[in-house]
């Protein structure tokens, strides 16, 4: 059998677990997202199992080839393998390389970023609203999310493709304007129905935001137990009928080409 080939530029979902109970039981993997653009490789929110999921992919993703590690916030389902991926990226500190981006409260004595690793990476940047660069990749933080710890969403510029990642947040009116114009929108969607006081998006809220933002392609991920019970496959079928653009409910190992043009062809492949 011929070995599978990834698109030149892609978004890979190493894990689609959301919230603590799906992570703890590993009902879905919590490995975060891996992106590659023109050879530049990014680990985004490497939760528990990110290293194992990367290396068990076929073909595997080599963490030693990472150029960037980005953490949107310090909660364990997003950060469990942060230090492991930095250790791997720098070959145990023997090669000073890569840039690490993370919020201020993930650093320092109360943070989750081990101090000795700061000297391993070529650069450490503190996330806040603004524009950032790492090698060939430019991205911006449009606003601070509504979440118990410092949390930021991202909008990447991969050539002409703009990829938005709406990390954990309560639903905010400003999200619509902040992400309008993206080609691909990845949304962490934990619950089917909105919950009072919950600092996570529900499916109902995600649908409202998609109707406002109208990306060329949308991907729901980071599912809590209620979303799994509601059946993401069934939800995806319903959303495909509702919107004129493709909507995916991500599964562990799903790989999408960076451009939405080939989404229908490649979207169902798994690692």
Helix and strand topology:
Layout: E1 10-13, H1 19-25, E2 33-37, E3 40-44, H2 50-56, E4 68-70, H3 76-79, H4 82-89, E5 99-103, E6 123-127, E7 130-134, E8 137-141, E9 154-158, E10 161-166, H5 174-179, E11 184-191, E12 201-202, H6 203-213, E13 217-221, H7 225-230, H8 232-242, E14 247-249, E15 255-257, H9 263-266
Parallel strand pairs: 3-4, 4-5, 5-6, 10-11, 11-12, 11-13, 13-14
Antiparallel strand pairs: 1-2, 1-15, 2-3, 7-8, 8-9, 9-10
How many individual β-strands?
15
Principal-axes shape call = globular
Q: Classify the helix fraction into a percent range.
A: 10-25%
User: Remind me, CATH topology?
Assistant: Metallo-beta-lactamase, Chain A
């Amino acid at each position: 059998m011929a070995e599978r080939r990834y698109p030149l530029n892609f978004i890979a979902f190493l894990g689609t677990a959301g919230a603590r109970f799906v992570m703890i039981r590993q009902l879905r993997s919590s490995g975060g997202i891996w992106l590659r653009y023109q050879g530049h490789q990014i680990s985004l929110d490497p939760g528990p199992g990110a290293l194992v999921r990367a290396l068990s992919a076929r073909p595997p993703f080599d963490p030693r080839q990472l150029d960037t590690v980005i953490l949107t916030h310090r909660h364990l389902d997003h950060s469990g393998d942060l230090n492991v991926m930095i250790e791997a990226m720098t070959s145990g500190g023997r090669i000073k390389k890569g840039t690490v981006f993370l919020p201020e409260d993930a650093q320092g004595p109360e943070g989750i970023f081990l101090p000795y690793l700061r000297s391993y990476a070529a650069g450490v940047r503190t996330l806040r609203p603004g524009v950032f660069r790492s090698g060939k990749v430019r991205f911006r933080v449009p606003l601070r999310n509504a979440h118990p710890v410092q949390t930021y969403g991202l909008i990447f510029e991969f050539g002409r493709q703009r990829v938005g990642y709406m990390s954990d947040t309560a639903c905010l009116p400003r999200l619509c304007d902040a992400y309008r114009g993206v080609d691909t929108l990845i949304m962490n969607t934990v619950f089917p129905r909105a919950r009072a006081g919950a600092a996570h998006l529900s499916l109902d809220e995600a649908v409202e935001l998609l109707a406002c933002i109208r990306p060329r392609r949308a991907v729901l991920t980071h599912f809590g137990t209620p979303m799994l019970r509601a059946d993401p496959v069934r939800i995806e079928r319903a959303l495909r009928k509702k919107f004129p653009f493709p909507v995916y409910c991500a599964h562990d190992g799903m790989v999408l080409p960076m451009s939405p043009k080939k989404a229908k062809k490649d979207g169902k492949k798994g690692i």
